[in-house]
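DM from R.C. (forwarded with permission)

"hey, sorry to bug you on a friday — could you get me a structure for this? deadline for the figure draft is monday and I only need the backbone to look sensible"
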Amino acid sequence: MRFYVRKRRAAPAVIIVALIDILIVMLIFLMVTTTFKQQPALRLALPESSQATKTGASEDAPLVVSVDKEGNLRLGAEAMPVTADRLRSELAARLDKNPDLKLAIQADKAAPFGQIIKIMDAAKESKIKAVNAFTKEAK
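My reply, with the result:
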């Protein structure tokens, strides 16, 4: 009778460099395919409208004036706090830089209506032609 001597198998080697390469490729893929959504600086409960439309990507971004439920005014994407008088001067200065400036009012549905009227008056005094209001679609 002949006995076979079993040879010991070598433990499988894990090639760490290949795993790191795959991990980096997956990370790059996820970073490229992820869309980044810009979060607003203020939490506002926008009023609903059945005529609400989404703005196109080709349009110039409007200058946003936000009004919270206490009536505080904030200007631009950086949400800089402003008063009604300061708003007039800021609008005039930005209109000098960009004559096609568009203004968008983003007001909480509980915001005082008087503040919205002050924003519209400041826009009219600055001779801004396009003034819109942000709303959300009615469900």
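R.C.: lifesaver. The mean pLDDT is 79.
me: no worries. The chain is about 30% helix and 20% strand.
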